[in-house]
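Hi there,

I know you've been waiting on this one. I reran it after we fixed the sequence typo, so this is the corrected version. Both the input and the resulting structure follow.
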Amino acid sequence: MTLKPLSPGKYEDIQFPFLENETFRRTGIPENGSAFFHALLFSNNTFRSKTDEEKYDAILDFRKELLKDLMFDDWIQHSNSLSQIIDMIRISIYMIPALLENTEELEKLKSYNINIEYLNLLFELIPPMNVDKNIVSIFEREIENITEITEKSLIELFENTYKTFIVDRINELEENVETKWTESKRSCITMTFTEMSNRLFQFILDKTFQEFLNEIETFEKPVPLLNILELYNTNFQEKNNNLFKNIIIINAITNEPMNNFDFEWDENKDYSILLYFPDFHFEHLSRIVNMDNKKNTAKIQRFIQSNDPIIESLIV
């Protein structure tokens, strides 16, 4: 059966093929960009008793808590961080003229000790299309050869890629001058433009990372499932916060648990179950342990202990 999202606050009791003897209650969650966080926090009695405004604040605090102590080298290990960096490089090199006309962005560039005159000259020497083709594309390909991807290793790779190309470009330019440049002059030109490109690359790295942080901190911004789980998994083992639980996710389309991601289960923590509607929506799932049809009441289990036999069926 393919499930469709319920309206916020509505509930429905359902069974899954892989657990025929168990009944779960799904509860509708607002589709506002923070469904994952809302569905996860819904297990908490204190959260459920809050007003809508208080829930908004609690979700925002939880999103920010995920980012606490997150460093660039932690983030760079996430699945699509490198593609985000590559995209930002390409956007930036083609948008340099627009960036230089934006007062706020111009001041940010200057804060990285980027000489704007040199920057303009840099892109006159190597137009954006050539930077993309001869530097960015090679950099993107060579990333696969890095043993350990860190901020430092990315900067070193970009510097080496850029320096190789700028030397070749200087050789081409020198063919059109009557007097050959001295080795000292060649070295000075290479160093000047390489340093400038390094500062621009650092600016782009920081900008990409900051945009990621801003997305997580924005209530209305939906975050892809894998990004959430990687970020959550990076943090939750170290958090004593009772809100951080093991997470089991059931796909609303296949009706099967999603175990195709690397999650480090903590045997000392309880489990929360979420129902996932690709790509961005979630609902809360509770286990019904005692249904009284005559009184139309049910005993709900919102957390499942790690030693419960049902866990084996959910995470295998």
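Quick highlight: The chain has 13 helices and six strands.

Best,
R. S.
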